[in-house]
Specification:
The structure is a homodimer. With about 325 residues, chain A is of the alpha/beta class. The first copy, chain A, is built from eight helices and 14 strands.
């Protein structure tokens, strides 16, 4: 394992300290318990808090700021944060209109966020993201996994919360965006968790893992490596089938997110985008919003995921609205 | 070699097509010859054009837009663009105040941009970037290499050009920023050029390449892998020594850019930032501007570079000013 680290037990704290220092105009870090908030506390709005294991950067702390999250609670690498982190974060940012947690569907996260809500003295609700159409039930999950589509949920709900919308309305939008979002990922290599010191799984130079999870969980199938168009074809097919099984008409506008897992060059991500947009057009899906880059990573895994969100006027409005965070910034 | 590609000869065109489609509000792609411009042509300003071999994405096309470049000319992977590309780009974007080329110091780029200027019917000047303090002369270079500091030059000169400044003034700022910027990179793995199909160089699991170039060129020394703080210490020392050798006082404000080469997780880049900022403080250097991420990559190389730019009021003003490109966006 070759990584830019010092002691394994300090990786998270040192990295978060660098993050908070580099973005001190936007975010503030607290330790013991560990959470990050906006540098300028928002007033009189539903506060949006997310969190989860680290190793998926810029998810979630990179999305703290105007138009998106109020706080984020990072756990150790690929490990859920603990309820005291969520409680402390909620106490710090609460702004009199309740707390909305956005949680990726993994057993540890679900359990710890639930424990936090049980102790929380504020009105609260939770949006559970489950956009990964690859598999139902997985290594750390009952039901579908929450993956890169979570970024779209956080962006849209964050935007709505800035308008002063109430808790139920924010939760409803989050649930709607999640329902209209489908993702699938492909791994070309494993990731390496620093504390483990070795690859999470073995994969041959001739293989790919179709439907991999963002912690290296198994996907649908170990397959032969092939051309990008053939890989993307199968991913797009999986997503379209998922929408059809939900009864969602696909003949509409969509947001296409091509997400790198950490070690895949932007050049390849844009090539995937090119391939996917063409294939989607063949299904009557017109890509009118795009995001290409490393937005929900799996440490140093080579690979990428494709996420499609079926747009409507409300989702478009909240996707396009201004956002000002370390990892997403536009419109102001 | 496992990459998301179809035919090797189509990688660049497919990737650029995806890029132009994903960012069609900002950039437009032309083929034969290949160049990219802003979607909205700027008027009455010095136009800023850059280019170079592909494989360093988002450099340079990712920096096309308001406040930065007017056009970019991508060559094949790690291969200079040809003069007809620069000529066509200049013809397309020229806006009556001359053309400023920003060129990284590699023999092929220098030669081809020079050939273009010889045929160019417009007033023109060139800023040659040479921020890499690792080595003098290298595989593809006479003199120092231009690396990630080029992003800072493009940002500042691009900002100045928007104010209507004349060609000589834009060139002078570019030269000044380049002189006040120093970089050094470290590779943990090689990159793999698609057309070659194998690693550019061999490196053991226990080794790093100190001072590596962004094409995998040799650096100062093959060294033993060690803790991040020890690696960063040597990088910071090299940069500080470089400034001292130029007679530049280091006891001042600076911009710190931690650049990933393509396969290094953001978590590690922020850890490097944390380490570097502390060490710089020990040299009296106060980091007041930051950029952390993949901004000048080397395909799928694991590794990172540290770039420091010594700020003055003029550079700060042009760094902070609004920019609206696919890869850098703030302030509007």
């Amino acid at each position: 394992m070759k990584k830019f680290i010092n002691q394994i037990e300090n990786v998270l704290t040192e990295s978060l300290s660098g993050f908070a220092s580099a973005h001190r105009d936007l975010v503030t870090l607290q330790l013991d318990p560990t959470y990050l908030t906006r540098s300028q506390k928002a007033q009189n709005k539903v506060v949006i808090i997310s969190g989860g294991g680290s190793g998926h950067e810029p998810l979630h702390a990179g999305y703290i700021g105007f138009g998106m999250l109020d706080a984020a609670c990072p756990g150790q690498v690929f490990t859920s944060p603990t309820p005291d982190q969520m409680l402390a974060a909620a106490e710090a940012v609460h702004a009199d209109k309740g707390v909305l947690f956005i949680v990726k569907n993994y057993a540890g996260d679900v359990m710890n966020f639930e424990m936090a809500t049980e102790m929380l003295p504020f009105e609260h609700a939770t949006v559970l993201t489950s956009d990964d159409c690859a598999v139902v039930n997985s290594t750390y999950t009952t039901g579908r996994r929450g993956v890169a589509g979570t970024v779209i949920v956080e962006k849209c709900v964050g935007s709505l919360a800035e308008t002063g919308a109430d808790l139920a309305t924010c939760k409803a939008l989050g649930d709607k965006v999640n329902a209209r979002t489908s993702s699938i990922g492909v791994a070309l290599t494993s990731c390496t968790v620093p504390a483990a010191g070795r690859a999470t799984f073995d994969i041959a130079e001739t293989e790919l893992e179709m439907g991999v999870g963002i912690h290296g969980e198994p996907g649908r199938k170990r397959e032969q490596m092939r051309k990008a168009d053939a890989i993307v074809h199968d991913c797009v097919q999986a997503i379209v089938t998922d929408f059809q099984s939900k009864g969602l008409p696909t003949n509409q506008e969509a947001l296409l997110l091509i997400n790198g897992f950490g070690a895949t060059p932007l050049m390849e991500l844009y090539l995937i985008y090119h391939s996917a947009a063409k294939l989607l057009a063949g299904h009557g899906i017109c890509v009118t919003r795009s995001l290409v880059g490393n937005y929900t990573t799996a440490l140093d895994m080579a690979g990428a995921s494709i996420t499609l969100c079926l747009l409507d006027d409300e989702i478009k409005q909240h996707w396009d609205s201004p956002v000002h965070t370390p990892a997403l910034r536009w419109g102001r």
